[in-house]
């Protein structure tokens, strides 16, 4: 055998050995291994505290929204999340608050949508910027369309139906439904639901929550002008107190039911001046979205399965007011 053939033979052995070794290594650890089906990768975990901006349409001094704020801030303390709460009852001003939060690169948005169309551009801009959004309280039917992860709140139509049924069961014949925020889709849904549940005569009355004296005057005028009104449904706990005062001042036989709780409503239920309150447990509307956004950031969890997370309705009357009232006093109901 020639020296040339011997060198070629040895070279061939070396190449073969290297190929075998390389293939063996590739089969164990390399990208050439047969891929296996796996679940989609979770979103990467970011370091540092999460910042959540809670932006609502609440008005200054509104006890309802103070409870929402309490829930959001307590969630922040419990979960190590930085929570910033702001509110403005004007839809244009609320949209600007959302835009500012996006510009400051907030880690998550919680937004109430009393006027969904006015907020749509701002919310969709947040989603395009990669900021997760959860809607609360109002605008449930537009939440998914605008790109929110989920909606947390009470279904207003269902709640309205329950309120209407309660008055029907009490034997009432004519209902006055008092709307205190013009253009609020949730309030329109409450009154429409009440019409369905009541199955009797229903009259609408528009008042302005920012002018309590005028609101009381309008309610007084309505029940005085039409003595057939024997039930008044208010959509806010503060308006409920005004309705009670208005009814008493003219000797009307109408009874008051309301949405939402505060200490005055608790006292009024105990005294019989208010027959029931529809509690949507708004503390949860503040607390849960902060928790959901942290779960999404840390573990790519989405809650609800494409459906809203309902916090109500829960009807509070004389049978349950003592138990619930203690939590109203501490600002969590």
Automatic annotation (TrEMBL):
* Keyword Signal in record: yes
Q: Which domain of life is it from?
A: Bacteria
Q: Which residues form the Periplasmic binding protein domain?
A: 59-295
Arranged from A to Z, the UniProt key words for this protein are: Signal
Location (main, coarse): other
Signal peptide from the UniProt entry: 1-26
One Pfam family of this chain: Peripla_BP_4
Report the PROSITE patterns cross-referenced here: PROKAR_LIPOPROTEIN (PS51257)
Which InterPro entries does the entry link to? Bact_Solute-Bind_Prot2 (IPR050555), Peripla_BP_I (IPR028082), SBP_2_dom (IPR025997)
Q: Where in the cell is it found?
A: Cell envelope
UniProt KW Signal keyword: yes
Q: Could you say which protein family the record assigns here?
A: Belongs to the bacterial solute-binding protein 2 family.
Record PANTHER family:
ABC TRANSPORTER PERIPLASMIC-BINDING PROTEIN YPHF (PTHR30036:SF7), D-XYLOSE-BINDING PERIPLASMIC PROTEIN (PTHR30036)
Q: What is this protein called?
A: Sugar ABC transporter substrate-binding protein
Q: Which organism is it from?
A: Amycolatopsis ultiminotia
């Amino acid at each position: 055998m020639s020296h040339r053939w011997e060198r070629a033979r040895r070279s061939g052995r070396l190449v073969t050995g290297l190929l075998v070794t390389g293939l063996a290594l590739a089969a164990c650890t390399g990208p050439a291994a047969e891929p296996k089906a796996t679940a989609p990768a979770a979103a990467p975990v970011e370091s540092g505290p999460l910042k959540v901006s809670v932006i609502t349409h609440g008005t200054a001094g509104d006890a309802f929204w103070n409870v929402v704020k309490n829930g959001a801030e307590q969630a922040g303390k419990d979960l190590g999340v930085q929570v910033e709460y702001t509110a403005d009852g004007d839809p244009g001003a609320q949209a600007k608050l959302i835009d500012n939060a996006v510009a400051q690169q907030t880690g998550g948005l919680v937004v109430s949508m009393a006027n969904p169309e006015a907020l749509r551009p701002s919310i969709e801009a947040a989603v395009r910027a990669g900021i997760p959004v959860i809607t609360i309280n109002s605008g449930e039917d537009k939440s998914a369309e605008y790109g929110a992860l989920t909606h947390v709140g009470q279904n207003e139509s269902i709640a309205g139906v329950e309120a209407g049924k309660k008055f029907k069961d009490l034997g009432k014949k004519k209902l006055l439904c008092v709307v205190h925020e013009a253009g609020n889709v949730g309030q329109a849904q409450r009154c429409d639901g009440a019409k369905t549940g009541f199955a009797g005569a229903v009259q609408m009355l528009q008042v302005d929550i920012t002018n309590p004296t005028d609101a009381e005057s309008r309610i007084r005028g309505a029940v005085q002008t039409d003595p057939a009104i024997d039930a008044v449904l208010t959509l806010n706990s503060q308006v409920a107190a005004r309705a009670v005062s208005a009814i008493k001042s003219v000797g009307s036989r109408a009874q008051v039911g309301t949405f939402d709780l505060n200490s005055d409503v608790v006292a009024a239920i105990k005294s019989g001046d208010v027959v029931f309150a529809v509690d949507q447990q708004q503390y949860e509307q503040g607390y849960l979205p902060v928790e959901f956004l942290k779960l999404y950031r840390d573990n790519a969890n989405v809650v609800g399965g494409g459906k809203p997370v309902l916090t109500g309705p829960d009807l509070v009357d004389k049978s349950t007011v003592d138990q619930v009232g203690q939590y109203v006093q501490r600002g969590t109901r």
